[in-house]
Design goal:
With 428 residues, this protein is an alpha+beta fold. Among the domains are: 2-97, Rossmann fold (3-Layer(aba) Sandwich), CATH 3.40.50.20; 125-191, 2-Layer Sandwich (Dna Ligase, domain 1). Helices cover 28% and strands 28% of the residues. Strands 12, 15, 19, 20, 23 and 24 form a 6-stranded antiparallel beta sheet that branches. A 5-stranded parallel beta sheet has the order 3-2-1-4-5, with helices on one face. The longest helix has 21 residues, at 245-265. The N and C termini lie far apart (43 Å). Bound molecules: adenosine monophosphate and glycine. Glycine binds at residues 218, 232-233, 291, 295-296, 298. Residues 218, 232-233, 291, 295-296, 298 line the site of glycine.
């Protein structure tokens, strides 16, 4: 099979690494990719939103399967374009169409979906731009902390939580009236605050059946002890020790199956990944959010544990022949640590030389590049999250040691990473 993978981050590096091991693979193209994925395929200068160019490329290279890493192309209709374009409609496409991608693209859509299908989640109310006063009045009736969510995609920054009512009132006005997050905050969801341990579960579905992937936990905040600003993710771990078999069963019965059934009842065709952002509360597991893609850096911890041919399972999903089951996984712990540019997630520099990266030689300690670029034969930084390392071992502590040992051999000026990945789970 000839495969085209869209994206350039650590998640896509992990996909490329896994796809390259598939028996079904002929050629892998990654658009745009990064220097790290050149070990696994060819990087191509192809922008997903230039639909004509994408079409020509797919036809010229006899592409059989397209896999989309990030949410943007999906929320903006790339899957719809493939399905509606006769010359492309034979291509297997992994990623939902616009309407399914709304599970991530609109918080209000996903909350209504969950309410309709009785999927446990925080209680909520949505307010439009012309309902600022109603939103303020509502805030006065609910308890702190106040959870405010921009309806649309806001680059991971659209959720704001305030302890103080006055701060929440200022925030809601900024979001709705001043469009703090642009069009994304022209509607805002105000939701009940949930307390508990967060974790994530992933499935690959064809709209009827699903493959269950290993669970993961990510470390969202920039500082150790999970403090400071939210980031795309500073590390991840899989499996998550506190997720017992019975919690898994509860998630399957109360969340995964009603979600997939709900899509079918609502006549939403869905081929692709669903990322369930979950929280274990005193009242049981509840959904914090859906994403219409895999997580980053969760993918870098999850895929190295999957023991199956990833293109075969994707093909089953695209041909809608999935018989629901858990994918075969190894029993190792995968622990991923991200190395970021100093200043991230706020202002940071690019173009800094990276030293110490070598080709991946071992399957138990893998470097996944993300914000990197090649210039004048030198590898330089090209983003906030620059690269990550995943260590694997049957002993979680060894997985952690391997990840940190390799990470510290890779260096660039101003680098930063958290040194407490796994600490909260007793892996230290
Ligand atoms: P989201 O983009 O919806 O995943 O939200 C980002 C982060 O905000 C989550 O990972 C949680 O840590 C936090 N969060 C979102 N919704 C809630 C909620 N209802 N209660 C408590 N924390 C929340
Ligand atoms: N690491 C969180 C996400 O991918 O959304």
């Amino acid at each position: 099979m000839n495969v085209l993978l869209f994206g350039s981050g650590g998640r896509e590096s992990a996909f490329a690494w896994k796809i390259a091991q598939s028996q079904l693979l002929d050629e892998l193209y990654i658009a745009p990719g990064n220097p790290g994925v050149m070990e696994y395929g060819k990087c191509v200068d192809l922008k997903w939103n230039n639909f004509n160019h994408v079409k020509d490329f797919c036809l010229n290279k006899y592409i059989d399967m397209v896999i989309v890493g990030p949410e943007d192309p999906l929320v903006n209709g790339l899957a719809d374009y493939f399905s509606n374009t006769q010359a492309l409609s034979h291509i297997y496409f992994i990623g939902p169409k616009k309407v399914g991608a709304q599970l991530e693209g609109s918080k209000d859509f996903s909350k209504r979906f969950m309410a309709r299908h009785e999927i446990p989640t925080a209680s909520y109310k949505t307010f439009r731009k012309d309902q600022v006063q109603e939103a303020v009045d509502y805030l006065k009736t609910v308890e702190a902390p106040y959870v405010l969510k921009a309806d649309g995609l806001a680059g991971g920054k659209g959720v704001v939580i305030h302890e103080d009512l006055n701060d929440a009132i200022i925030e809601i006005k900024e979001m709705l009236a001043d469009e703090k997050f642009g069009e994304a905050s022209s509607q805002v969801v105000i939701e009940e605050f949930l307390e508990g341990m967060e974790f994530s579960i992933f499935v690959l579905t064809d709209g009827n059946g699903y493959f269950l992937l290993p669970e993961a936990k990510d470390y969202k905040r920039i500082n150790e002890g999970d403090k400071g600003l939210n980031t795309g993710g500073m590390g991840a771990i899989s499996p998550v020790p506190f997720i017992t078999k019975s919690i898994f069963e509860e998630v399957k019965q109360n969340i995964i199956e009603p979600t997939i059934k709900g899509l079918s009842v609502d006549k939403i065709e869905y081929v692709g990944f669903i990322f369930f952002g979950l929280i274990l509360t005193k009242k049981g597991v509840q959904v914090i959010e859906y994403n219409c893609r895999m997580g980053d850096p969760e993918t870098e911890a999850v895929l190295p544990r999957v023991e199956e041919d990833i293109l075969m399972v994707m093909k089953e999903s695209a041909t809608k022949t999935i018989i629901s089951r858990t994918l075969k996984v190894n029993k190792q712990t995968a622990l991923t640590v991200m190395k970021v540019s100093g200043g991230y997630p706020e202002k940071y520099s690019k173009g800094i030389i990276i030293n110490g990266i070598e080709k991946n030689r071992n399957d138990d300690c893998i470097v996944f590049q993300a914000g990197t670029k090649m210039e004048d034969n030198k590898l330089i930084t090209n983003g906030g999250r620059v690269l990550c390392v995943t260590g694997l071992d049957i002993d979680p502590l060894n997985a952690r040691k391997k990840a940190y040992a390799l990470l510290q051999t890779i260096k660039f000026k101003g680098e930063y990473s958290r040194h407490d990945i796994g600490n909260d789970l007793g892996i230290k």
